[in-house]
Amino acid sequence: MKGTKDGRKQPDFVPFHNMHIQLYERQYSEVLPSILASIAVYSETSKNDTLLYLSYYARGSFYRKKGLKDEALASMLQAEKISKNIKNPPGNVGFYSDIANLFFELQQYEDALQYYLDLLHKNDFSANKKLQGAIYNNIARCYANIDKHDYEKAESYYKKSLAFYGEFQDSLNLAAVHLNLGDLYFEQYKDRLAVDHLKKALLYSEVSEAVDIKDDIYFNLSLAMESAGQTKKALEFYKKYVEQLEGIWNRDRIWGLAEQEKKFIVDKKQTEIQLLEKEAKLQKMQLDTKRMQSNTFFSIAAVLLLLLLVGLYSYSQRIKKNRVIALQNIQLDELNATKDRLFSIIAHDLRTPVYLLKESNLRLKKALIKNELTDLEKQLDLNINMTENTYSMLDNLLYWSLEQKNGSFYKKEQLPLHSIVGQVLVNYGNALKIKDIRLDKNIPEGIQVYADSNAIKIVLRNIIDNAIKFTQDGGSIKIDARIYENQAEIVVKDNGIGINKAMLDTIKSGKTVRQKDTSGRTSTGLGLELCRIMTEKNGERLMIESEEGKGTSVKIVLELVKK
């Protein structure tokens, strides 16, 4: 029992009851003080392990809802520790599933895997068939992502997941699992199996709920078809992938996402500051309560000393809190500056291609009405080229913004260089055809390098894209690979307009440079900056040699996998 202001006793379950009502009524802005009060009561007064476990569980769920995953995981693990003193903890399966999902979202795949496997032995796990399908799918993803990839076990659990979802004819989850299984086979260079499962994923993705994964299915099918040597089909799927993106990444969507992301960052920082303030107020209330309950027979000198110590502690805590808030304000200003720069680039560089695409579509409509097939085909090629260039610009902007926020993740692995270059080049067949540029590729098969797959593809894509943009119609581009001791070199050389010495010195100094291409359009300069950042963070080297009017040569030095 706990005392009230009028001296009466209130039952110990009241804090938990208040917390439960606020959660039920979705009063999320007011529930955190109730959760913290509930934790304080059941840990210090009543020692009720069940309500204390549920209180920590509620705090973890609240933090997770607010996007504070590390804090959510800490609360969940504290709840798990307490649950060991309870014979049958309520919501046991859902609780362990939440912990496993948090580890997975934080990319701690070994820990996530252990919790998912433990779930299989829970008494009430087998009662929920749909949950079993999700758990088996997540176990498979863990095996595929841990440092020592266990593809055999991943394949086994993906098939178990398919069996459960097939029983309920759950098209959305069947499409997602077939997509994951196709990716798994593709990573093992089992192209035929990869294509089979990706086609099944495409079949199940016809439901409206699967629209968010359909572009991934088209893109992965294009890569798998290219790897299997079916270039024509690969191009068809890639065109469908571009069409899918056009329906999603329109101009209003781009601005909407940017505004939502900015609002999310600001709201998150404000929420963190509010949480710090509320926890500080709760701590002060607890200190005041303990002070009021202290023994009144202490001497006046002891009371004065205690008050002095409390004052010093409060002052130090206030200083510490002010420092935290000041640091967060600085970080918020940096994020706002990055966002302002991103919006400026989007406003400047996307307006022109969007306007040109609009005008081109009008000409396309006129050609279609007049049944002028030659003009129609030529206009379609131009539309595809503009769409590819705009998408490449968006891709660069995305990775650049992630770099500015330190949000990117690099993981080196063994990669086949010939296959990686082939996957990148599939995007540029149409652009090479439009400018009648001859491409010579000399990448010996069997060269294996250590690199991050996404990073090396982005670097190659930007370098090849620049080579095409700054090479005149009828020109040539050559891609070679050479081996020197424990290193592999990729050289992309063109006979385009080149770079003058002053501009080349500026690029080598690490500064962004804007230059007009052969069509008279000015580049953003983000491509080379992104290449430089990614090669440095991967422990690689990027070297540029050029002479105005005689073309440009870009060399990437990678770590070679020794046989």
UniProtKB/TrEMBL annotation:
It is an enzyme of class 2 (transferase). It holds the Pfam family HATPase_c. The chain crosses the membrane at residues 296-315. Keywords: Coiled coil, Membrane, Phosphoprotein, Transmembrane, Transmembrane helix. The keyword Phosphoprotein applies. The keyword Phosphoprotein applies. CDD domains: HATPase (cd00075). One of its GO terms (molecular function) is phosphorelay sensor kinase activity. This is histidine kinase. Residues 266-295 form a coiled coil. SMART domains: HATPase_c (SM00387), TPR (SM00028). SUPFAM superfamilies: ATPase domain of HSP90 chaperone/DNA topoisomerase II/histidine kinase, Homodimeric domain of signal transducing histidine kinase, TPR-like. It comes from the Bacteria. It comes from Flavobacterium lindanitolerans. It catalyses: ATP + protein L-histidine = ADP + protein N-phospho-L-histidine. Residues 345-562 form the Histidine kinase domain. Its EC number is 2.7.13.3. The lineage of its organism: Bacteria, Pseudomonadati, Bacteroidota, Flavobacteriia, Flavobacteriales.
